[in-house]
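Lecture notes, continued. The same structure-token format from the folding unit now serves as the input rather than the output. Read the line below as a description of shape only.
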């Protein structure tokens, strides 16, 4: 009981600090500004100029991913001893926003490597697993992936059918299919979730480290997508894949909690991605409304445009502050499930709305492939779907707020 009260008091103090702003420090540290600057430079010099090409061809941007890795952006929160930049979650948010503003597909690959792959192993892996799997991914030499979703189980993740059956010698025989695997076509290692005890539902799920070079692992069809087209996505299949006991991540039966914890962090990454896409659309719109004239005046002087600009800015700033709050909490080693869901929901819906309005304000030019507005609009949509749909974020928030299930 004492523990519950103490936790409630702590939550309340955090609430006061982060909502009322009584003790909020809005300044970024020099390190945070430095990584933001590095990310912005790479985004502007290398990523944005080829974004249209990558969108049209769907070509995986391997050279740019290597550059991101060489500059510490593939393992921002990974300690230097495992090949990362050793920075905090706020730095991750700032860098993700810059890369997403350059091209959303690049930021998808970056977020899976950072949040879903490295973060999960750092939190739950053994020292050997950290050494073996994290370094190559954090340095951008290899690509990581996260396999939870299946053809018949998305939001209801416990309905998975992929099975890992323990053998007499202690190994696990894995069979089943996973779908919508970001970076699946190029990943060297994958964090896989499979049922080890179906009778136990959520408590019967175990996480495994998968080496895609090993027998029994197969890649299936790639997904043709509306947006983030340069981030490769495919089905993967396991046919009698043998996992060793030391390839279990965390403990047997703890896989669902690992997945949920990893997704909490992932949702901060997707919120940041949404902010980056929205900011790019907003900045293009500011330029356009100053330059474009109608009825003898810049369209930015018309009240209907002004209302849109004001609402875009409010939504963008709200999304940013909520995302920084979630990142700050994560950096304090506090539970941030609710704050991450609030940030992702707000930021992804803001990105969809802002890119929609940006296309509308640009009129024919917004609809044309000659400008990036239609790409921002297409790219924004996924942020309302992956790593938990907006409906799932609302469910998580409402459960946390009411205490009811
Ligand atoms: N952190 C730690 N543990 C958590 C947790 C969290 N955030 N959320 C739940 N748990 C624990 C619970 O405490 C519970 O533990 P006990 O068994 O000890 O009681 C256990 O997990 C089961 O929890 P629930 O009963 O709440 O589970 P549920 O079946 O009702 O599902 C859900 C909850 C929120 C709907 C969850 O299934 C969910 O988030 N679904 C969405 C899945 C998702 O985001 N998929 C995205 C796919 S990945 C992707 O998109 C990646 C990509 O390629 C980019």
């Amino acid at each position: 009981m004492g523990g519950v009260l103490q936790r409630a008091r702590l939550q309340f103090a955090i609430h006061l600090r982060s909502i009322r702003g009584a003790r909020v420090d809005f300044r970024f540290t020099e390190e945070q500004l430095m990584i933001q600057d590095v990310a912005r430079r790479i985004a502007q010099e290398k990523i944005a100029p080829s974004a249209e090409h990558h969108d049209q061809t769907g070509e995986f941007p391997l050279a740019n991913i290597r550059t991101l890795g060489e500059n510490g952006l593939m393992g921002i929160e990974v300690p230097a001893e495992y090949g990362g930049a050793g920075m905090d979650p706020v730095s991750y948010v700032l860098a993700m926003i810059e890369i997403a503003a350059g091209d959303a597909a690049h930021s998808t690959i970056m977020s899976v490597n950072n949040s879903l792959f490295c973060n999960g192993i750092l939190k739950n892996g053994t020292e050997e697993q950290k050494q073996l799997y994290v370094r190559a991914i954090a340095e951008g030499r290899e690509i990581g992936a996260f396999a939870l979703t299946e053809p018949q189980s998305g939001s209801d993740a416990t309905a998975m059918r992929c099975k890992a059956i323990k053998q007499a010698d202690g190994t696990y025989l894995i069979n089943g299919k996973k779908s919508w695997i970001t970076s699946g076509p190029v990943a060297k290692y994958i964090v896989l979730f499979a049922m080890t005890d179906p009778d136990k539902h959520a408590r019967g799920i175990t996480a495994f480290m998968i080496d895609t070079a090993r027998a029994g692992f197969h890649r299936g069809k790639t997904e043709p997508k509306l947006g983030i087209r340069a981030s490769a996505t495919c089905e993967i299949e396991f046919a009698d894949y043998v996992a060793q006991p030391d390839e279990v991540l965390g403990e047997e039966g703890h896989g669902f909690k690992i997945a949920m914890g990893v997704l909490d962090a992932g949702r901060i990454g997707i919120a940041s991605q949404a902010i980056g896409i929205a900011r790019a659309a907003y900045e293009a719109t500011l330029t356009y409304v100053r330059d474009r004239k109608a009825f003898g005046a810049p369209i930015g002087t018309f009240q209907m445009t002004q209302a849109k600009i004001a609402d875009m800015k409010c939504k963008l700033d709200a999304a940013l502050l909520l995302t920084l709050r979630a990142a700050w909490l994560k950096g304090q080693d506090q539970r941030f499930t609710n704050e991450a869901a609030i940030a992702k929901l707000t930021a992804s819906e803001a990105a969809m709305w802002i890119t929609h309005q940006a296309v509308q304000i640009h009129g024919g030019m917004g609809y044309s492939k000659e400008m990036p507005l239609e790409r921002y609009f297409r790219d924004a949509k996924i942020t309302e779907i992956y790593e938990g749909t907006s409906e799932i974020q609302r469910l998580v928030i409402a459960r946390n707020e009411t205490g009811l299930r």
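Point for the exam: The longest helix spans residues 255-291.
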